[in-house]
DNA sequence: TCAATAGTGTCTTTGAGACAATATGAC
DNA sequence: GTCATATTGTCTCAAAGACACTATTGA
């Protein structure tokens, strides 16, 4: 065997020798939308929404799925995610973050498909709902993840904790429910977490796990980053901001404390809300200080 | 077109229609090893180490690289990562976590390769250095990531911050240096982070970014999880535990405060260190309470 | 005046950080 | 006793949490 240069090596390299999987991106696109409020003196409540698409073809025909698609040979994974987001919503320059890569051999019945999931946060005001998709059935679903059972069993070297969740996705006329079980194992020092789909419901592939994972990530990150502002328009009231936090965290916050916490992330404007039915509220803007 | 059942659809599905990338895993395996201490009355200092392998073939011949390899068609990505870890270190049942998936089209000169990076934390005591690899040159490198420059430029809608880092990797006779530039952009509400290799040095592929990413992840996670214990043996002194935290965080901690912080994560044993040259120290064990 | 939301003040508890003091074993 | 590390005590300051109070608009 003679010594090859790198250029020579690359010339003779045959990539097709090794079996290769398909690679896709799947987008968990979140937004926050006001709930209908008949009493116009009261403020509307907000719902966290995720965008799903009804599958027209096999596999999982007529099930709902996250928007996504194949990564092209010449684009980066990030670029594929941006492309999918823009195809689905018409938006660019939006907050986006890679979440996790899912690679169980059987996760797609067609063939080996590895999928890289992304989370995007958008301001519902910016979007003309389902921009330019006539054929496809795309809808915003209200997301809720509810803990149903939480059981811990002690073992010799730690414990096994099993948590059952219901992931509920509701659009006006459609309601999907998936049951998930998270298993947290402590064996000695090693902690393992695993979440499995128990009852898949009408959600395609392992997309329930992706949505659940995205929810967890968002709930964590909202505590120590400024991602929440991506769900609001440029001008907002502090109550709206607080509602976003409350909707994502799933519990109420005390007004005075909340305002103290975010006071150096916002800057007040001299504008106020109008036609309120009560005392108008000052509008604020996001300002990154750190 | 007639209506197909899912079974019929799958029978006729041809996966080779779409171009597919190769998918690999790359392992960032960390451990902590005592530095030589000639004065036997003094405690040894500790270094954070990462395992690198010298590449025997093209591409990046004679460069150093993270251990890793192709994901097989029938195994999950996690399984591939476990397999690589065990091939390299002989260890199983070790703390491991998926980090990030790297998919720039040109990151591998051979062909399109998408790589999923994992971090593993192991107790150096458990390992017989480079178990069973005769041909390959594998070494533990002391890792340091040093901020060299930090410049922020204001823009109309936020700022652009550029941080230059040097990633330094040192084994007894080998010293690698890579220069990285992290760019943090705030444009309105949207925050973007991107890290690029400026001067690659003798590190193969984009592995400098993977190591840098892993370091950041570990520094973050050590603050709010118990991953540090994976770097220690079953019995350890509180000073050893503190040294692990200090080594990873890169700065000293106050003893009294540190002990208060970790007191409900450990349980004391009735054993003490021996042959010390000074007052012996009580040995503790990890105990998960949460 | 009332309904409804906007906005502020302050007390308590918790935890982080800094620093000091005492203890113990090898030599 | 001295060196070197082990272990505990306490003061201060900042942040988190709980709760109460005042302000402003439209009807």
Instruction: Give the oligomeric state.
Output: homodimer
Rg calc of chain A: 22 Å
Distance between the termini of chain A: 58 Å
Mean pLDDT of chain A: 92
Assign the structural class of chain A, choosing from mainly alpha, mainly beta, alpha/beta, alpha+beta, or little secondary structure.
Answer: alpha+beta
Query: Please, how many domains of chain A?
Result: 2
The total strand number of chain A stands at 13
Largest sheet: number of strands, sense, barrel closure of chain A? 10 strands, mixed
Strand content of chain A: 35-45%
What letter string, H or E per element, gives the SSE order of chain A? HEEEEHEEEEEEHEHHEE
Percentage of residues assigned to helices of chain A? 10-25%
Class of the largest domain in chain A in CATH? Alpha Beta
SSE blueprint:
The structure is a homodimer of 290-residue chains.
Chain A: H1 6-12, E1 22-34, E2 46-54, E3 64-65, E4 68-70, H2 77-89, E5 95-102, E6 113-121, E7 137-155, E8 158-170, E9 175-187, E10 190-199, H3 207-224, E11 236-237, H4 238-249, H5 255-262, E12 266-272, E13 282-286
Parallel strand pairs in A: 1-6
Antiparallel strand pairs in A: 1-2, 1-4, 2-3, 2-7, 5-6, 7-8, 8-9, 9-10, 11-13, 12-13
The first copy, chain A, binds a DNA duplex (27 and 27 nucleotides) through residues 41-43, 237-239, 254-257, 259-261, 275-282.
């Amino acid at each position: 065997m003679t010594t090859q240069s790198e250029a020579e090596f690359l010339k003779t390299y045959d990539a097709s020798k090794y079996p290769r999987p398909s690679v896709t991106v799947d987008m968990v696109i979140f937004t926050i939308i006001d709930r209908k409020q008949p009493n116009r003196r009261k403020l509307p409540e907000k719902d966290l929404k995720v965008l799903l698409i009804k599958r027209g073809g096999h596999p999982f025909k007529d099930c709902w799925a996250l928007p996504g698609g194949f990564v092209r040979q010449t684009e980066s994974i990030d670029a594929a995610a941006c492309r999918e987001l823009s195809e689905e919503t018409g938006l660019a320059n939006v907050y986006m973050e890679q979440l996790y890569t899912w690679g169980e051999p059987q996760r797609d019945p067609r063939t080996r498909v590895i999928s890289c999931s992304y989370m995007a946060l958008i301001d519902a005001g910016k979007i003309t709902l389902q921009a330019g998709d006539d054929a496809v059935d795309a809808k915003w679903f209200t997301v809720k993840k509810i803990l149903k059972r939480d059981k811990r069993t002690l073992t010799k070297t730690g414990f096994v904790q099993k948590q059952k969740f219901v992931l509920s996705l509701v659009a006006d006329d459609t309601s999907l429910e998936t049951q998930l079980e998270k298993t947290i194992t402590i064996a000695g020092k090693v902690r393992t977490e695993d979440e499995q789909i128990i009852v898949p419901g009408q959600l395609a592939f392992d997309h329930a796990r992706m949505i659940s994972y995205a929810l967890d990530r968002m709930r964590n990150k909202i505590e120590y980053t400024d991602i929440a502002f991506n769900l609001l328009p440029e001008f907002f009231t502090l109550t709206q901001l607080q509602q976003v936090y409350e909707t994502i965290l799933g519990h109420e916050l005390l007004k005075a404390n909340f305002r103290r916490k975010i006071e150096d992330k916002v800057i007040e404007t001299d504008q106020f809300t109008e036609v309120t039915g009560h005392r108008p509220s000052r509008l604020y803007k996001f300002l990154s200080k750190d």
